[in-house]
Structure formats: C-alpha cells, structure tokens
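Pasting as-is:
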Amino acid sequence: MRADLRRLGDLPVRWVVNTLAHYDHTFGNTRFGPASDLGAPIYAHELVPAHLDAYERPMLAEWIATGREPKDELSEVVITAPTVLVGDTTTLDLGDRVVQLLHLGRGHTDNDLVVHVPDAGAWLVGDLLEESGPPMYGSGSFPLDWPATIDRLRAAVTEQPGAGARVLVPGHGAVVDERFAAAQQWHLQAVADIVRDLFAAGIPVDAAVREGGDRWPFPAAGMLGAVRDGYRQLLSMGAS
C-alpha cells in the first residue's frame, strides 16, 4: 500500500482514515500509525475499537490457528486501534484543503465513516456502497438501517454546493455516481423488506434464505448475513 502511494508523489502520509473496522480496512494500521516510522494519526468512528475486539481479533486468531493463507502475512498483523475517534462529524484541515469525516448512520457496520473532499466533489464511502460485487452483509451489519443511511448519503451529495462533478468512491470497485447509489439503495431496501417479511412469518434463520427464493435482489449465497443480522435487529427491537 505504501509503495502504491508513492506513485502519487513523495509527500509523507500525515493522516489515515479507517472508513470501517473490517480487517481489509484496518489490518494495515500498524504500517502507518504511531508505532511506525510515519507516526500518522489514525481517524475512525468511535465504535471501531469495540468492533475490532468483538470481531476482527477473534477472527484473526482463528485464521492463524487454522493455517489460513497467506500464513506469513497474517502472522505479522498487529491489530492497531485508531488513535483519533470520531462521532458524527469531524473536519480535518490539511492546509490546502479541508476534509470532512461523516458518520451518516448504520449500514455495512455501525461504524461506517464517509470521507468528503468538498473542493474535489469526492465522497469516499467505504463499504456503504460496493461496485465490484453485491453489498456485503458481513460481521456486524445493520440490514434494516442500511437503506436510510444511503438515503442520507445521497441527500448530502445532492446538497453539495457547486456545479462540478460529484463522484462516489466505494470500498471495492470502480468510482460511481449518485444514480448508482440510488439503484443500490433500492436493492438494499428490498433486502430489508424481505427480511422483515420472513421474520414476521416466523421463518427460522436457517430456512430464511431458501424461503426468500427469487425475491432476493442479490445472489442468495450472500443473504445469510442479511437474515442473521436483520433478525438480530428485529429481536433487539422487540418485534414479533
């Protein structure tokens, strides 16, 4: 990652932002943070440390214990928590521009952070949007909240002043626009509605994906996480 950054120039890395807590967004922290030669502050949402403890640390331990590849790289990982915790909004002054860090709600996780670069019309949205494949309902997702969070993202993008192009950079895949976000929001809402219907019908988790049949807007193989975490949300709200 550091070698790739050098293609953009020889300026030092002075700030790091974790857009969420999952391993592919945080396991490189040790190469940039206070214990490294760069010593950069690592910004992340205030719930990231709890997520690291609940999900990423035990997952890494299991991977190492079971010999998951790449063994050598995994054994070198030192899970490094962020050093600057962000609530709903924080503004970074980079000298020649400002960058806004925004928590718009729960979705892919409860700690999704959006990086907005106003003068560039750019929105780095982490895994709230994915272009290279369907959205991932991984550890700690909130399927029922996700559509509303994308709605708030779209509203923020639309309300941005200026007539320049606005681009959204997903955590995986190519740069997209607001129309892509609208389409993905529609599909996320469809998933949320199906999960609610299955729960209300008393369909157990292990049968729900099959019962959803061809209603799922995404491949059924990825819907178990949506059902699992959607049911968890409904149970926590006392739904029946």
